Amino acid sequence: MDAGFTEYVTTRAGWLRKVAYLLCGDWHRADDLVQSAITRLYTNWPRASRADNVDGYVRRTLVNTFLAEQRTSWWRRVDLRENDQDPPTPRADLESALDLRSALKRLPARQRATVVLRYFCDLPVAETARALGCSEGTVKSQTAKAVEALRELLREPVQEGRA
Predict the structure, then answer these.
(1) Residue 124: alpha-carbon gap to chain centroid
(2) Is residue 106 within 8 Å of residue 163, measured between CB atoms?
């Protein structure tokens, strides 16, 4: 059991961290989310390893962990995003990438999760609905609202202090 779990986590840790970062907008918090999701995965590894889509199982665990954390007041009291000193990853259009990240942080948690699953993880509507535990119609409406909000936020460059 442990060998399969260790191999899976070792090969997918980077991907999980990227998804977690897009959900929460903070590398340190992303590490905490991944750790919590991996802990839950370990306790359920016999069932998860038999799943048709282990990545889907783990992705749903990660999103559920994120959404559950959003429902508590703990993350609001311990939000360290303003103190994050991690340097941004160099990109061809760094300013646009930073604007998009800032805008993404401003979306409500459910809309942010929907956008990350649909566009970063490239999931179809049906699989996104399963991952979020909601209807396909909800995914479509949340995606539409999120995309419209992002368009509005990105009309003018987003200032970090406004987030």
Answers:
(1) 16
(2) yes
Q: Name residues whose C-beta falls within 8 Å of residue 42's C-beta, 6 or more positions apart in sequence.
A: 5
**What confidence tens digit (pLDDT) does each residue in 18-34 have?**
999 999 888 999 999 99
pTM summary value? 0.63
**Distance (Å) of CA 154 to CA 21, 31, 142, 161:** 20, 27, 18, 15
- Rounded Cα gap, residues 87 and 85, in angstroms: 6
CA distance 129 to 118: 10
Chain centroid offset of residue 163 CA: 17
CA proximity to 98, closest of 25, 41, 9, 49: 25
